[in-house]
Amino acid sequence: MKTILHPAESRGHANHGWLISRHTFSFAGYYDPERIQFGKLRVLNDDQVAGGKGFGTHPHQNMEIISIPLEGDLEHKDSMGNTTLIREGDIQVMSAGTGVSHSEYNKNEDKPVKFLQIWVLPNKKDVTPRYDQITLKKENLHNQFFQILSPYADDDGVWIYQNAWFHLANLDEGVKLAYQLKDPQNNGLYVFVLEGEVSTVNLDLQKRDGLGIWEVDKVDFNAKSATQLLLMEVPMDS
């Protein structure tokens, strides 16, 4: 088993006034040659956007883009004709493929919106751009790893063009769970603690800590407090 620890305070930091962002991997003005990506997981941004502000229309190409709102309401518009609102409990995905433009704005003027922006490198390029969005039921996340993303359109959650699986869990204090990798021969697991504290592979992880684990079949977790976890299983070839 191999691991790489990314403590919350070690992440890149950008404060643009209207946008406060923490970058687990190199992004925009933050560059660390040791932190380009974890396998096919290229971007993990922890964003907070001020009331009424947002990202103007901008393009993407050949990237799988996943947004996970944590607080507030985020308005999305894109060149495919979608105008939607995503909020806590929703999962949004775009396959940028041959090219797509979109904008993201805080719908509310009086409070920030917080969300994770995640990019995964695709296994198929120049596909027709696509968009999907789902709403999760909180009870499905209670004390279990609930699948929110996979490579399959007919499976639980959204799907992307990559051999990847994402799971969310809301764990009570003292709960112990194991995650079995879907493809342990080729994939690794990136653990991101949204809230709380969890013990895994002899490490205690706190809020917003990240941990990459690979060359392993199964990973055990022990919630030291009420904990919210995001698990991202991705191919390790770069």
Automatic annotation (TrEMBL):
Transmembrane segments: none annotated. Residues 148-234 form the Quercetin 2,3-dioxygenase C-terminal cupin domain. InterPro entries: Pirin, Pirin_N_dom, Quercetinase_C, RmlC-like_jellyroll, RmlC_Cupin_sf. It comes from the Bacteria. Residues 11-120 form the Pirin N-terminal domain. PANTHER family: QUERCETIN 2,3-DIOXYGENASE. Belongs to the pirin family. This is Pirin family protein.
